[in-house]
Design goal:
By secondary structure, the chain is an alpha/beta fold. The chain has 14 helices and 18 strands.
Length: 409
């Protein structure tokens, strides 16, 4: 009986080794990726930006012949579940994708909080995940071996605003230490990491942080912070509260007639502040993972400008003017899957994981190279400023900055 059981175990091991397609979700000529994504709830706006970016890249890759593994052509597809913007639900759904749907290749959810919830699940089952929206640096200090991110980490998001404020102070003959900084951040992993980067940058210059608020849970009211801002008159106001926080800040800055020389906030594009609140948004500084004027290019989409034009044409109803960077980085994540499948020439999870880890490629979105921790170490953050015509202009040097900010109410 012991010999019989050993024989069965050995045969099972051989089957797993030589027949990965039987267990991975590769059926016929289709490779199915999985994703729990926020299609409803608090993060639904950005979740939809992400889904469209994934789908756009899948369509483009398929139209160009798909993915070649073992001499055979495969099409890509994505199976989505709505995580309802809830971390616990996202974790449940990723486990469902793995255990019930037999999907062994993941695209990430939207946001750092949800990525933190699902990363332990994919890690537990040894399922590689290429994510595009979880920027929290703490994601890459946990020793995960199956998590990879194409975007820059969150501590880099708004630190450039402090650098610009310091440069402007010097140009005006003042010490950067004279700059007064007001801050308001949502109490979530992403925003708290953004805050850490701002605090580090301000400390470097000896700047005084005069307001350091946590945004209320519903993000529908920032009047307490803005009342203090009006009284203290800081030189810089920095806000991070995802799309709802950006919209609330822009709306109440208009309503309360807040005048601050420099305002910098995350998620300007996702919240469409330049369209909904053009007067207040005039002069806002907005971090972005990507700009359409980037010189990067690839064989799938061409240049950054080419991707931007094609995406706007495909989703003209949703993005008549500005495309959010969340969509661009989502498309880049799919390109990593395409290249990694072909580099591994296999559907074995470990081989594919190793191919992802070895990725070094240029895309329309930027260069991608992963550290041992899984974060992208080859791409910088960018800053853009909204002008009086509600257009975004890349801020490459301090001379590109309109300062002080001018808003007309």
């Amino acid at each position: 009986m012991r010999i019989f059981k050993l024989s069965i175990a050995l045969l099972s091991g051989l089957f797993l080794t030589f027949s990965p397609i039987a267990f991975a979700k590769v059926t016929g000529n289709t490779i199915t990726l999985g994703s729990a994504i926020s299609l409803t709830g608090k993060y639904s706006t950005n979740g939809l930006h992400t889904q469209r970016g994934y789908d756009f890249a899948v369509d483009r890759i398929n139209s160009m012949g798909g993915v070649t593994v073992g001499g055979k052509k495969y099409k890509l597809a994505v199976k989505y579940y709505d995580d309802e913007s809830t971390p616990a639900r996202a974790a449940q759904l990723v486990e469902r994708l793995i255990l019930q749907d037999k999907i062994e290749f993941m695209l990430g959810p939207y946001g750092s909080g949800l990525t933190k919830a699902v990363a332990p699940v994919s890690e537990k089952f040894g399922v590689p995940m290429v994510e595009a929206e979880g920027a929290s640096r703490s994601l890459f200090t946990q020793g995960y071996k199956y998590l990879f991110a194409v975007l820059s980490t969150s501590e880099q998001y708004l630190a450039p605003a402090i650098e610009l404020a310091a440069a402007k102070a010097k140009a005006a003959g003042k010490s950067p230490s004279s700059v007064k900084v007001a801050m308001a951040f949502e109490n979530d992993p992403f925003s708290l990491d953004v805050r850490a980067g701002v605090v580090d940058a301000a400390s470097k210059y000896g700047m005084k942080i005069v307001i350091d608020d946590k945004l209320p849970a519903d993000l529908a009211d920032m009047s307490t912070t803005l009342t203090k801002t009006k009284a203290i008159k800081p030189d810089v106001l920095i806000v991070s509260g995802h799309s709802k926080g950006a919209a609330t800040a822009a709306r109440q800055i208009t309503e309360m007639k807040i005048q601050v020389p420099m305002v910098a906030m995350t998620h300007c594009e996702a919240a469409k502040v330049q369209e909904k609140f053009p007067n207040a948004a005039n002069g806002f500084l907005c971090p972005t993972q990507w700009v359409e004027t980037s010189p990067n290019k690839d064989k799938y989409f061409g240049s950054a400008a080419d991707w931007n034009s094609a995406f706007k044409a495909a989703y003209s109803k949703h993005y008549p003017t500005t495309v959010p960077y969340q969509s661009a980085q989502a498309s880049a994540a799919v390109l990593v899957w395409k290249e990694s499948f072909e580099a591994a020439n296999s559907f074995d999870k470990v081989k594919v994981r190793d191919a992802i880890a070895a990725t070094e490629m240029e895309t329309f979105y930027g260069n991608i190279k992963f550290s041992e921790n899984g974060n992208n170490i080859a791409k910088p953050m960018f800053m853009r400023q909204i002008n009086a015509s509600a257009k975004y202009k890349a801020v490459i040097t301090p001379d590109d900055l309109t300062h002080p900010r001018k808003a007309s109410y």
